[in-house]
Write a structure and sequence with these properties.
Strand content: under 5%
Radius of gyration: 18 Å
Distance between the termini: 11 Å
Order of helices and strands: HHHHHHHHHHHH
Mean pLDDT: 81
Largest sheet: none
Length: 288
């Protein structure tokens, strides 16, 4: 694996994380009108429409193995979004992302062998603990939201693993197919929750923006990057998500940050950058 491809993949994933958390903040504004499941459905359905129109996946032929990987990838994506948006109804964005990160962290731990890798993970966990507003905002955190965010984390781990399998030898058309599968999974829940409100023209511009920021753009970037990056590096890179989520919540949703939480953000950023440098440097060259 060439170092240049690893660095480019890191940049693409980082950009996708920024888009994802910005879109999640805007998505919260849709909850009063269509609910969490409705917002999830709008996000995935509109993203699928955009991706299918742009990448025209019907022109590509997939074998049975690729189809199984795409269905698993899309299924994990759909469940992850449904669980995560449901969690946002009862807990703040930064906390939800921190809890959801248990999935990528598990992927990172599964592949760790060097002491320095564990040091970065320990630092990331410490930062996550500092981001949780324990004792300062306990009333804002419901047990149902915590469990839903943890379930989203389990699906996030599946998204990483199945996304890498589906993306190997594929391309952006795999993203279009995966998001389409996720949209089909979310659609019944959205219709049951919001009904015809999903078709309200007044909310479609915001919903389209959420779809592009939270799904279409970052998932496409992930699919380009995943085949060229170790899964454990991707998992540790995701440690930046809670920091970005907390920052986005502060800037867009006016969720205040304590000095303790700011310390957690710094710890996570340092862990993410340190892990990126360490693992990229230790990535062995491909066997000829």
């Amino acid at each position: 694996m060439r170092p240049q491809s690893v660095i480019l993949s890191v940049l693409l994933i980082t950009l996708g994380m920024v888009f994802t958390q910005t879109g999640a903040s805007f998505a919260k504004g849709l909850f009063p009108m269509v609910g969490a499941a409705g917002a999830t459905t709008l996000r995935l359905v509109l993203a699928a429409v955009v991706l299918v129109a742009v990448f025209r996946p019907w022109r590509q032929k997939l074998d049975a193995r690729q189809w199984r990987a795409v269905l698993a990838y899309g299924g994990a994506m759909g469940a992850m979004n449904l669980f995560f948006y449901a969690a946002l109804q009862t807990i703040p964005l930064g906390v939800a992302v921190a809890l959801e990160f248990t999935g990528p962290l598990a992927v990172a731990l599964a592949g760790s062998r060097k002491v320095l890798d564990f040091a970065w993970i320990v630092l990331a966990v410490a930062g996550l603990a500092m981001l949780l507003p324990l004792g300062q905002a306990q009333g804002e955190i419901g047990i149902s939201g915590v469990l839903l965010a943890l379930a989203a984390g389990a699906c996030w781990a599946g998204y990483i693993i199945f996304g890498q399998r589906a993306g190997t030898g594929g391309g952006p058309h795999i993203t279009a197919l995966g998001v389409s599968v996720a949209a089909v999974i979310a659609l019944p829940f959205g219709v049951a929750t919001a009904g015809t409100a999903l078709l309200d023209p007044a909310i479609l511009p915001v919903a389209l923006g959420v779809a592009l920021l939270s799904s279409a753009i970052p998932y496409a970037l992930d699919m380009v990057a995943l085949p060229h990056i170790p899964s454990r590096l991707f998992g540790i890179l995701m440690s930046g998500q809670p920091a970005l989520g907390a920052l986005s919540g502060f800037l867009i949703l006016s969720e205040t940050l304590s000095p303790w939480q700011l310390g957690g953000i710094i710890a996570i950023i340092v862990a993410s950058l340190g892990a990126t440098v360490t693992i990229a440097r230790n990535t062995p060259p491909p066997v000829a």
